[in-house]
Automatic annotation (TrEMBL):
Residues 1-29, 35-54, 153-177, 287-343 are annotated as: Disordered. GO terms for biological process: anatomical structure morphogenesis; cell differentiation. It is found in: Nucleus. This is GH18716. It comes from the Eukaryota. Keywords: Developmental protein, DNA-binding, Nucleus. Residues 188-282 bind DNA. Residues 319-335 have a biased composition (Basic residues). CDD domains: FH_dFKH (cd20041). It holds the Pfam family Forkhead_N. GO terms for molecular function: DNA-binding transcription factor activity, RNA polymerase II-specific; protein domain specific binding; RNA polymerase II cis-regulatory region sequence-specific DNA binding.
Length: 492
DNA sequence: GATTGTTTAGGTGATC
DNA sequence: GATCACCTAAACAATC
């Protein structure tokens, strides 16, 4: 089984983190063995002026988790924003008889990667309420253990400690509960940068974000990232450029500004589905780009690379340096193929050569589509290479059309229809506690729409995610890119 | 000049 | 031990 976290500390020492962040060497986060632990930050209103409305919603929602079934404690805004995510969460918690039940339920999860500490963080800092009952359970359990409490119970000014400060993560105390609370706040989230970027993009109705918007999203959600911005933002940029799953979309003339938009590769939707959200099971590779790489793996290329160690694929090539490996020369060739230049080099060669090399008109249409498709039914007919997958997608499509339910729910449908697809751990792709499907609010758009239309329409204007209700026609958007919409992102 | 994007390099931990 | 996924730093170019 994939080891995702260090074991949680004994209950007597609930916080056991290696220093999250601040380490000069790598491996701080997901892969580094840092164990971001419980964050008690449930009070959105007392986090100072730096917290965006988005974050407030997130925190509000989290507070709901702490109150165990307290739908009344969640703001209408948060409820409207996160729709059924919140409702599901509330329902899940409410269905339990207090924190004991919550704790028991959590224990029943089997502890795949769900240490109380890891779960807790996500429940606290993330707006991704679709963590649902799991997160709420965690919080409830924490409360039962006397560790919970609200973020708001912390004295002002103690929540945004510098990592190096005495109360910060680097010196998390184990002597006083109050110290825990301070420390939790800035624990590094257990998510990889790729996860964070994915969250940000998927959380946006247009599925396109500028770099600065991605930054902002992350900082809004995770106070940890309000510090050392240069460090992690560099990593974000690196991740965007390096990973095939992120595709750059040039701005249109009617949208002047700095930097391009970033979106997810349409086929990258399953990166986290079957695995823990904390770490991808497998790096996404654009098949077409991979094909290009293979194409460029001609003997001449190989020899060229063999004589140019500095130009090998990067993140993995250095392992070859270390371990004298030779099997993955091709891995990052796309960097070269994407062009050495700055802005013109499209990471998503194929995706955006459609939008880029064809003409600006297609590009404009691309952008326009993303804005115009509010509430559209999916129109695309998936065209996938693999027959089985194609069939599955058609099943999904049919089910969606019939039931108007979200693809993520269809995933559950598939799990029941195709039990073999189920994870050995017992988690279905979409039910994994750290599955991105559960994390992101995209799966609840229909519910969101229904919910706030009927209940909280008046709050819509206040919600930073208001337009997420649009669930803008991703289908048209991806079609304009020459792709079919990825499973799990199809609009309703 | 600041921001954005690309690329290279070196590192860690987890998994196979 | 090999491989993989990820993190961090830095240099550099392009763009606003």
């Amino acid at each position: 089984m994939q080891k995702l976290y260090a074991e949680p500390p004994p209950s007597s020492a609930p916080v056991s983190m290696s220093s999250a962040g601040g380490s000069a060497s790598g491996g701080v986060g997901v892969g580094g063995g840092a164990v971001p632990t419980s964050i008690n930050n449930a009070n959105p209103t007392s986090n100072g002026g730096s917290m965006s409305p988005l974050a407030r919603s997130a925190y509000t929602m989290n507070s709901m988790g702490l109150t165990v079934g307290g739908m009344s404690s969640v703001s209408p805004q948060a409820a409207a924003t996160f729709g059924s995510s919140v409702l599901d969460s509330a329902a899940a918690v409410a269905s339990m008889s207090g924190s004991m039940g919550a704790a028991a339920a959590m224990n029943s999860m089997g502890g795949n990667c769900m240490t109380p500490s890891s779960m807790s963080y996500a429940s606290m800092g993330s707006p991704l309420g679709n963590m649902g009952g799991c997160m709420a359970m965690s919080a409830a359990s924490m409360s039962a253990a006397g560790l919970g409490g609200s973020y708001g119970s912390m004295p002002p000014g103690t929540r945004d400690m510098e990592p190096g400060s005495p109360n910060s993560l680097g010196r998390r105390g184990v002597d006083k509960p109050t110290t825990y609370r301070r420390s939790y706040t800035h624990a590094k989230p257990p998510y990889s940068y790729i996860s964070l970027i994915t969250m940000a993009i998927q959380n946006n109705p247009t599925r396109m974000l500028t770099l600065s918007e991605i930054y902002q999203f992350i900082m809004d959600l995770f106070p940890f990232y309000r510090q050392n911005q240069q460090r992690w933002q560099n990593s974000i940029r690196h991740s965007l450029s390096f990973n095939d799953c992120f595709v750059k979309i040039p701005r249109t003339p009617d949208k002047p500004g700095k930097g391009s938009f970033w979106t997810l590769h349409p086929d990258s939707g399953n990166m986290f589905e079957n695995g823990c959200y904390l770490r991808r099971q497998k790096r996404f590779k654009d098949e077409k780009k991979e094909a290009i790489r293979q194409l460029h793996k001609s003997p001449s290329h190989s020899s060229l690379e063999a004589t140019s160690p500095g130009k090998k694929d990067h993140e993995d090539s250095h392992h070859m340096h270390h371990h004298h490996h030779t099997s993955r020369l091709e891995h990052h060739q796309h960097h070269k193929e994407a062009g050495g230049g700055g802005g013109v080099a499209l990471a998503g060669v194929n995706v955006l050569s459609a939008a880029h090399s064809k003409d600006a008109e297609a590009l404009a249409m691309l952008h326009a589509n993303a804005e115009l498709c509010l509430g559209q039914q999916p129109q695309h007919v998936p065209t996938h290479h693999h027959h089985q997958h194609h069939q599955l997608q058609q099943e999904e499509l049919s089910a969606m059309m019939a039931n108007r339910c979200h693809p993520s729910l269809i995933s559950d449908y598939h799990s029941s229809m195709h039990p073999l697809k189920q994870e050995p751990s017992g988690y279905t792709p979409s039910s994994h506690p750290f599955s991105i499907n559960r994390l992101l609010p995209t799966e609840s758009k229909a519910d969101i729409k229904m919910y706030d239309m009927s209940q909280y329409a008046g709050y819509n204007a206040l919600s930073p995610l208001t337009n997420s209700h649009a669930a803008l026609g991703q289908d048209s958007y991806y079609q304009s890119l020459g792709y079919h919409a990825p499973a799990g992102t199809t609009s309703l």
